[in-house]
Write a structure and sequence with these properties.
With 246 residues, the chain is mainly alpha-helical. It contains nine helices and no strands. The chain is globular, with a radius of gyration of 22 Å. Residues 1-23 have low confidence and may be disordered.
Length: 246
Amino acid sequence: MENLFGNKNSRRYMPSANIWSTSTLSNIQQSHLLKMYTTILIGTIITTLGAVIYINRLLQIPTLVGLITGFGCMFYIIRSSSNTVIISFWRVLAFLIFCFTLGNSLGPLIIYGNFINPIIIPTALITTLILFVSLSCSAIYTKKRLTLYMSALILSASAYLGFISFFNFFFRSKFVDITLSYAFILLYSLYVFYDTQITLECVAYGEKDFLLHAIQLYLDGINLFAKIATVLIKKHQEEKENKRKR
């Protein structure tokens, strides 16, 4: 009977013990992810610094200058990409400048959000963090890579939403504008999942440039935060308008 039902003293299988297992990832992939997320964390700190400096009016970079500087730094990082673990000083400096100008450019959005309602920006930050972490973990722990299936979906959705946004710029439909805002939140959420899996695939094929991968994911997070903050701002504005009409 013991052979049929198993030894009562035998250890039962506990699924929870393997929840945090990274056995599906190679040591190289785990090391790459650690470096990438550390880079994202550093970038977040520098971006926050740039936003704080803008809010306190210590340095407010003009929009055009910020765009040119940011795109220039990103272009340099992409063009100087090399398949090596060692990152040059100039690439690191370009990344830090890029993050700083990005944070500085977010200053007006943060100021306006705080003006409408002080709870908007913290809510957007927490929501972005939850989505980013959960989607990244889902992508990492998903054994079956879905990048091939998601590529067509994401690219088609990006083109379609961009097309609608262009025409809505002229027609100014409020319903379309709200729908687009939520659609872009969903799209950027998919990008977090997609880019995480793309990173794992690239590392599996020998790519080692964690800085480039960090920028891709970091921009996904920034875009997600900006869209969530914009949606919350519009929502609170509508609530204020409805109260005034009453």
